[in-house]
Target: Threonylcarbamoyl-AMP synthase
Amino acid sequence: MIPGEPIFSKSTRVLHINQNNTLEVCRFAGEVIRRGELVAFPTETVYGLGADALNQQAVRNIFSAKERPADNPLIVHVSNTDEVKRVAKNTPKIAQVLMDAFWPGPLTLVLPRKNIVPDVTTGGLDTVAVRMPDHLAALELIREAGVPVAAPSANTSGKPSPTTAQHVMDDLGGRIDMIIDGGRVVIGVESTVIDVTGNIPVLLRPGGVGIEELQEIIGRIRVSTPEDVSIPRSPGVKYTHYSPEATVVLVTGDGVAGAIRKLAEEYEGKVGLLLCRETAETVGDMGEKIILGSRNDVESIARNLFYSLRLLDKQHVELIIADGSFSVEGVGLAAMNRLKKASSKLIHTG
Ligand code: TXA
Ligand code: MG
Model:
């Protein structure tokens, strides 16, 4: 044993939910959260790793289970809009408008923080990120816990976010107390994060709610980019993200099919291909091939993305060649954002 390293020897209970037992399971799991333990649960976006957001030790345990850097703050989950007042000092008018339009749903609002929320939850920031998920079990769990629930995605830091309970088990089994298994998630990528503490809202992370939908409701939005340091950024963006074991190469532009075929033919190890349906039709037969969906079917692309990255890892693929020819409208922007971050190389074809 390395001195100072945490030892994890929990037995992780998996509770399956169905139409008949959800409320009962969530009541039980809510008590577990209230006791200061860790419960992974499904949301509409990805699985989250939940703990009492106001309990410092419980939140610290989230960071060690995930091996997450301490300065990367957590999203606090609520089960109704009134609960926001417990953790946020005030609710700017624009935040209210966004909550009315998109909650429950895949939108996280960064708001001024109340001191009741410990530093460990917010990474020491004077803001707090809040979201009300659109998922029965998640909402019941939070309601039954009776406390706001801090929950990052339930993966080891740096890995693709989990879209099934098995993914959570693969990463965090033995490190957490319980997993609520609600099957595969619907959206497949995380929530959109928007900072509404300034004069103009800032998009910190694209996600389940498309930027077009946000613009329709609130008009002008600034988009946080690594290049423009005058715009606020999420602390999380500086870390490696969404990386499977295999190396990922992302191919974009008009000549994707030809470039992907050439790369796959030249590579000597085991190759996995993540393709849009249209590209798959011209690439032909080679390697482990997964079709994410049609180029314009961005919901399918997003839903299958993390799931497929993990599937290719299970097949011990060494190189994943990903097809970036899908639309970046709606949730497509989030899928492209995650794929870029997962990739160690980007090839743009003319
Ligand atoms: O869909 C989701 O958002 C999922 C589910 C479980 O709800 N959660 C999730 O959490 O993706 P996580 O921790 O993996 O990502 C949270 C992101 C990070 O990029 C973090 O830096 C940012 O939100 N964040 C959290 N609090 C913030 C704050 N006060 N200011 C700016 N960014 C913040
Ligand atoms: Mg995450």
The longest strand covers residues 247-253.
